[in-house]
Amino acid sequence: MRYQRFEELPVWSDAQLLAQKMYEWTAGEEFRGRHSLKDQLERAALSVSNNIAEGFERGTNREILAFLYIARGSAGEVRSMLALCDRMPQFERTKVTVLGLRKLAESCSKQLKGWADNLQNSSYQGQRYVNREEREREVQEKRGDAFMEKLRNSLPANHPLRREG
I need a labelling partner for 16 at 20 to 30 A (CA). Which of 8, 77, 93, 154 fits? Predict the structure, then answer.
């Protein structure tokens, strides 16, 4: 499935959630007097979704890949800072939050790596290079997939072809 907008991407949605939760956490009293750490955590977390969006909008696989790796680097930066916070006594009270943020950042990293690997192994060059014939082929393919899905759904539940979908 090719996404038409970056807002449809599950990894972008997860990265937005990471930034939102980061901003909520850094608003807490633990960050009083730690402005540089707070700022860096917020900027790195927000950088993940922003780089996904910018790369997606560029329209070529080569550019998307470059921005995916930047986004992945930002997710790694978030995880590194959260590991530091996990060691600091002033964040003892929020260990569960830190763990949740680390898991979310790691999930973003894994999704970005999977997407990048997929793009690197693809002959598709990106939206910028799609011509009318390729668009029509994609429309026909979607119609065929929809027809096959409808056909499979019309079969009895225990039919072998129904499970192949």
Answer: 93
